[in-house]
């Protein structure tokens, strides 16, 4: 397959002989690993050149989708005593957030760690990467806060006689009691899996394939208790707002939360104890362990990578050798 162009969506030309018995063209089922890597060069190039207004608007949508998934996961888990089962169910619900982002073209800061592939390949500038991250991160925060306020005003936290409000406070409290190193590595592990979900979704040409690619890594990161910076833009502000209601605070105490720690939950603890270290970990996990590793594996070494991609799928080592 040959990839063409950087200004538009990555396109590929199927190899001449890529069918299996029954006449199914395997080149249309999914991209090969080198082709996925090359497609993210093109995707990153496009994302890095989007105007600021569009990045913010699409970022607002991305943050809102993740926040909607986060509030749904809280609703699903708030009456379950077993932590493991609660996280398993939360993961099932939360995967819908990333799927909405991937399918609809919204922008998500964590997934945009993969723009690093385009920068490493020389197709995008590092300053353009930073610009994208800043605008998308700001948009994600705005979108998440919109959903947070709407959910607070909806009275949803009164579910189960206020137990959901108490659970929301307890979740926020737990997330602001990590050490810096714990929060960093929980963020790193999270975005390693999130970017794997985005990476694998890039291999699929249809929504059903993207759904399966996204679902399992996201389910795994939530079940494992890893930390996602954009999701935490809902989880922790929601707890800060919920603690203003005495009944919900009492419900949190009944769930085992410490009243003194609840009183200490505020915007400062949100940014310092969670959002900052988790964001750094998210950047490291996605940029280094997905984008960087796969660029080194499939795109490094100039001319050889071109032949690897061009002849992926037809198994012709002789053609590859002749092309060099």
Task: Give a concise summary.
By secondary structure, this protein is mainly alpha-helical.
Can you tell me about this structure?
It is a single chain. With 324 residues, the protein is mainly α. It has a domain at 51-108 and 140-302: Up-down Bundle (Glycerol uptake facilitator protein). It contains 14 helices and 4 strands. It has helices at 33-48, 52-77, 83-104, 116-120, 126-154, 163-175, 180-201, 207-224, 229-242, 246-254, 259-264, 267-298, 303-310, 317-323; strands at 2-4, 11-13, 19-20, 24-25. It has a two-stranded antiparallel sheet. A two-stranded antiparallel ribbon has the order 3-4. Residues 1-5, 7-24 and 315-324 have low confidence and may be disordered.
* Main β sheet profile: 2 strands, antiparallel
**Broad shape:** elongated
Structural class: mainly alpha
Q: What name does the CATH topology of the domain at 51-108 and 140-302 carry?
A: Glycerol uptake facilitator protein
Give the helix tally.
Answer: 14
- The CATH architecture of the domain at 51-108 and 140-302 can be given as Up-down Bundle
CA-based gyration radius: 22 Å
Following the backbone from N to C, one meets helices and strands in this order, namely: EEEEHHHHHHHHHHHHHH
> CATH superfamily of the domain at 51-108 and 140-302, called what?
Glycerol uptake facilitator protein
Annotation, overall tally of beta strands: 4
Helix coverage percent of residues? over 70%
Q: Which strand order does the major sheet show?
A: 1-2
């Amino acid at each position: 397959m040959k990839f063409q162009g950087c200004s538009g969506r990555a396109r590929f030309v199927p190899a001449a002989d890529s069918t299996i018995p029954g006449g199914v063209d395997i080149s249309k089922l999914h991209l090969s690993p080198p082709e996925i890597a090359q497609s993210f060069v093109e995707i990153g190039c496009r994302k890095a050149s989007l105007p600021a207004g569009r990045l913010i608007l699409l970022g607002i949508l991305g943050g809102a989708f993740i926040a909607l998934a986060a509030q749904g996961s809280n609703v699903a888990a708030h009456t379950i005593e077993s932590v493991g089962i609660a996280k398993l169910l939360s993961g099932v619900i939360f995967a819908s957030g990333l799927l909405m982002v991937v399918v609809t073209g919204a922008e998500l800061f964590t997934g945009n760690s993969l723009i690093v592939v385009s920068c490493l390949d020389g197709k995008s500038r590092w300053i353009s990467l930073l610009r994208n991250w800043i605008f998308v991160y700001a948009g994600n925060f705005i979108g998440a806060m919109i959903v947070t306020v709407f959910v607070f005003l909806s009275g949803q936290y009164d579910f189960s006689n206020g137990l959901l409000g108490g659970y929301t406070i307890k979740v926020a409290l737990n997330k602001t009691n990590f050490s810096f190193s714990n929060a960093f590595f929980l963020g790193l592990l999270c975005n390693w899996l999130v970017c794997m979900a985005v990476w694998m979704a890039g291999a699929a040409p249809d929504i059903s394939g993207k759904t399966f690619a996204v679902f399992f890594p996201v389910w795994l990161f939530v079940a494992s208790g890893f930390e996602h910076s954009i999701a935490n833009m809902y989880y922790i502000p929601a707890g800060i707002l919920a603690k203003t209601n005495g009944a919900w605070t009492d419900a949190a105490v009944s769930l085992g939360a410490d009243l003194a720690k609840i009183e200490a939950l505020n915007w400062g603890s949100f940014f310092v104890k969670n959002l900052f270290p988790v964001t750094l970990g998210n950047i490291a996990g996605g940029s280094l362990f997905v984008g960087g590793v796969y660029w080194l594996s499939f795109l490094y070494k100039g001319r050889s990578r071109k032949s690897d991609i061009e002849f992926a799928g037809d198994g012709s080592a002789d053609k590859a050798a002749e092309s060099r």
